[in-house]
Specification:
Layout lengths: L2 H9 L2 H10 L18 H10 L2 H9 L9 E7 L3 H14 L5 E8 L5 H11 L3 E6 L4 H12 L4 E5 L3 E2 L4 H11 L3 E8 L15 H15 L3 E3 L7 E5 L1 H6 L12 H11 L3 E12 L10 H19 L11
Parallel strand pairs: 1-2, 1-4, 2-3, 6-9
Antiparallel strand pairs: 4-8, 5-9, 6-8, 7-9
Helix pairs in contact: 3-6
């Protein structure tokens, strides 16, 4: 990314940033946060769980849950993109050491083998439940379906285009437990449109794990307040839903439902914080990557105007730290 576009990301309106990104030549001088995405069929993806002994680890984490601690419901949406979903779920069962969690996957009518993969995992993992929608319900409605079918005291919205790192969930929940004024919390990442994005450099899962450990060592216990959290990974108490309601389904397929939800939480007096010591890899636009750029921008602009009309405010993009 060249210096002109980097400056644009901080200060220019969203529409100008969008077009500068596509008109300026790419900067290939640094390979940062590049993780290869595995390919293969649903059968191949399932085979990994047996050949790498991942199934043994997953079953140990799934059964029996520790009823002495509150349950955390991890809600993940899928719509095709099986290789990304596979990476995410594998990392989740490797690195989630929180002793009482369930994974609720809501599939928005995938057609690429994702359904077979999820059905196969559901048969062997007791804390995994899958809900299959007959059509793509979009982010807000599908998330609400998952929330209503979950049982956890803590709710975690996690994109399927993420890779979590060791201890991620326990540390995020610990911040919420320590301070009742914290309404929502998210991690730092390599790809986001706000201050959650940091400089990151790795090219494999192993390097990502080491990077996350170094980040924890350097920033343990540090966090900061943020205007709005990106919902690629966010944790909050279930009672927040009772106070401010579910995600607003008027935002359709996606964009701005996260800004809207965060805005309502802040109106109730809650703080939104970002944990500097928790790192989650984010590929970015996992389910919308195949959309035409003009189509994506059209949806973005429509939902931006909807958000502004709803609240009588002018939306302003967040300034980045990098």
């Amino acid at each position: 990314m060249n210096a002109l576009y980097q400056a644009a990301r901080r200060y220019l309106p969203q529409r100008l940033k969008f077009w500068m990104k596509h008109l300026l030549p790419p900067d290939n001088t640094k390979q940062t946060a590049q993780i290869p995405i595995p390919q293969g069929s649903a059968v191949d993806a399932l085979r990994v769980w047996y050949e790498e002994n991942l199934l043994v680890e997953a079953r140990q984490r799934a059964v029996p849950p520790d009823r002495r601690v509150p349950c955390a419901s991890i809600i993940m949406l899928t719509h095709n993109k099986l290789p990304l979903t596979r990476l995410c779920i594998e990392s989740l069962y490797r690195y989630t050491d929180y002793p009482n969690f369930e994974l609720v996957v809501v599939d928005n009518a995938s057609e690429d083998g994702t359904r077979d993969y999820l059905e196969g995992l559901q048969r062997v993992l007791s804390n995994l439940r899958v809900i299959f929608n007959s059509r793509n319900e979009g982010f807000a409605r599908a998330s609400n379906i998952g929330i209503m079918r979950s049982r956890g005291d803590y709710l975690v919205l996690l994109n399927n285009d993420t890779i979590v790192t060791p201890g991620w969930l326990a540390r995020l929940i610990s911040y919420v437990e320590k301070d009742p004024k914290v309404g929502m919390i998210g991690p730092v990442t390599n790809s986001a449109g706000n201050e959650q994005m940091i400089r990151a450099c790795y090219s494999s899962i192993e390097e990502l794990e080491r990077f996350a450990e170094q980040r924890l060592s350097a920033f343990e216990g540090r966090h900061f307040e943020i205007e709005a959290l990106a919902m690629f990974c966010v944790v909050f108490r279930r009672r927040l839903i009772d106070e401010i309601g579910l995600l607003d389904e008027r935002f359709g397929l996606g964009t701005f439902e996260d800004d809207d939800f965060c805005y309502r939480a802040k109106l109730r007096g809650y703080k939104l914080i970002c944990a500097e010591d928790v790192f989650v890899h984010h590929f970015g636009r996992g389910t919308t990557r195949s959309w035409d750029d003009r189509e994506y921008l059209k949806l973005f602009e429509h939902n931006r105007r909807l958000f502004e009309r709803k609240w009588g405010v002018r939306w302003r993009p967040a300034r980045l730290r990098v």
